[in-house]
Design goal:
It holds the Pfam family ubiquitin. This is BAG domain. The chain is of the alpha+beta class and 257 residues long. 48% of the residues lie in helices and 14% in strands. It has a five-stranded mixed sheet. The chain has a two-stranded antiparallel sheet with strand order 1-2. The chain is rod-shaped and about 140 Å long.
Length: 257
Amino acid sequence: MMRMRPSGSDDGSSRGSAEEAAAGAREVGGEWEMRPGGMLVQRRGWDPGAPPPEMRLRISCGAARFEVSVCSLATFRELKKILTAETGLQPAEQRLFYKGKERGDGEFLDVCGVKNRSKVVLTEDPTSLERRYVEMRKNARIQSAQRAVSAVSMEVDKLADQVTTIEKSITERNKVAEIQITTLIELLMRQAVKLDSIHTEGDASSQKNLQAKRVQKCVETLDLLKTRNGRLKPAVVTTKWETFDPPTATTHWEYFD
């Protein structure tokens, strides 16, 4: 197969070359045809009015092997678009090799000699592979942070329930042991330290800030309850019982006629 491309930058000379190529194509008895852009290729054997035939290509991508159908007049760019649906790789992330040579997006399959059942090797662009690896590590960090924040959230839920119980008891003027309040404050501060040590990104950051505010609110509530609890008088419990003398029994009976 023969190709002829315009070689000069001058428009006139380019048009002249294209016209000469077209004239040459006519001189050889119609065995050649002109492609858009002045490329001269051998004429196909099918009816020009009929749609171009499709061919099946064998694709090798790492350990994966599969086949795709593509128009015989397609470019490697169009083949990449088809492969996107099979591999999930965008065209810019793909590199295609045929007969050991990387093919450019603008090259035509048939011009490069690709035929039905030909083998094309697909690899991922190294730059794209590195970006994917970085993205995977970033997602792993985000998921790890989300799990850590979720674990702290569960602990804060339990401690917040205890704060509510103590608040209810003090509101009913029932004095609570001070050690309960101070211990609960210490446990909440431990959760605050855990939150502060978690490195978060994206949505995990908002969840972390929300839990930090919850912990702060619980600690402030306990400080107020501690003051109120100190003003309450403890309930006095006595073990002395009041005794009563039994009534005196009498043996005198009153008689009635």
